[in-house]
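Severity: low
Component: inverse-folding endpoint
Summary: output formatting inconsistent between runs
Steps to reproduce: submit the following structure tokens with default settings.
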């Protein structure tokens, strides 16, 4: 090979499926990246957005970051088009580029479509590991597409729920989602036709709706004392007083939550000054790194608002790449 030739690893969806990460491996990769964040060994640039025509159609998210222990910098570009189901496509299609931070050379190109769903589910589940009651037995999950599957699967991996309830707007969507979960998890899934029946009495509540515009459908009165609540829809679905009942509010990265950033479940709360850097408990990475406590009693009601971390994408991409290389399912592309 000539000195100026550059080759990169290419890992497509087929290569990922041929050497899949286990649930434990997904959680481990993301948990280690959170610990690195808490230890100050990462760089997380706030995401930026590209809206080609209107946010009603969809938009692109661009996430950028660096993880020192992995020696990778990365950039992920992912589309967020909530009506893609009409074309038989995932709501989120993405690509992750991994770079050598010492010389800027591209090291790998990875299909990030499944990474996006996995890393979101891993954040929800790892938040549960540190912020939910250890004996949580009932999950109420709003939303059936995009990241929903990995939210439920990875939370169940940790808690082994006695009851899993799901709801989404379209009956065909929620019924298909329940069938998939029953097949993969080996347990009965309760399908509800409304938000209230899904949420009331649940130990863990996840709101992953796909609303076209903000609408306060998730009622504060439905949340049980001591629950762990994760609202993270792009468009807010929560009532403004939801934060009033919380003993702790935790975020994944305050820089992506602070005033002036677009979208998110607590956007109005932050922009109005109701939720500030001083009033939140801290970032999840600080808790994972042991710098701040997580749940301290069964009575605490705790909210996790996660916007999505570039470092989670990078950590999962790196783990997938390592496993695929060992299995021989990557391709080598000549860059120049």
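Observed output (run 2 of 3):
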């Amino acid at each position: 090979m000539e000195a100026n030739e550059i080759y990169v690893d290419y890992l497509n969806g087929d290569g990922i499926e041929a050497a899949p990460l286990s649930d434990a491996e997904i959680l481990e990769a993301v948990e280690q990246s959170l610990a690195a964040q808490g230890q100050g060994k990462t760089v997380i640039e706030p995401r930026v957005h590209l809206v080609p025509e209107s946010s009603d159609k969809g938009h692109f998210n661009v996430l950028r970051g660096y993880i020192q222990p992995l020696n990778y910098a990365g950039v992920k570009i992912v589309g967020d088009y909530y009506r893609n189901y009409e074309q038989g496509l995932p709501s989120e299609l993405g690509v992750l580029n991994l770079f050598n931070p010492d010389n800027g050379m591209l090291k790998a190109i990875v299909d990030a479509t499944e990474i996006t769903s996995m890393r979101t589910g891993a954040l929800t589940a790892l938040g549960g590991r540190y912020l939910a009651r250890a004996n949580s037995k009932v999950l109420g999950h709003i939303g059936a597409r995009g990241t929903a599957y990995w939210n439920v699967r990875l939370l169940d991996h940790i808690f082994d729920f006695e009851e899993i309830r799901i709801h989404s707007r379209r009956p065909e969507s929620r019924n298909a989602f329940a069938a998939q979960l029953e097949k993969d998890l080996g347990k009965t899934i309760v399908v509800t036709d409304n938000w209230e029946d899904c949420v009331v009495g649940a130990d863990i509540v996840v709101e992953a709706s796909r609303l076209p515009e903000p609408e306060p459908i998730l009622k504060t009165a439905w949340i049980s004392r001591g629950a762990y609540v994760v609202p993270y829809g792009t468009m807010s679905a929560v009532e403004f007083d939801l934060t009033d009942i919380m003993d702790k509010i935790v975020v994944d990265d305050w820089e992506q939550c602070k005033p002036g950033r677009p979208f998110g479940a607590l956007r109005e709360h932050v922009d109005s000054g109701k939720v500030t850097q001083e009033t939140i408990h801290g970032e999840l990475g600080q808790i994972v790194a042991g710098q701040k406590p997580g749940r301290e009693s069964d009575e605490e009601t705790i909210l996790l608002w996660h916007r999505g971390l570039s470092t989670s994408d990078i950590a999962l991409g790196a783990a997938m790449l390592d496993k695929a290389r060992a299995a021989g399912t990557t391709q080598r592309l000549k860059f120049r």
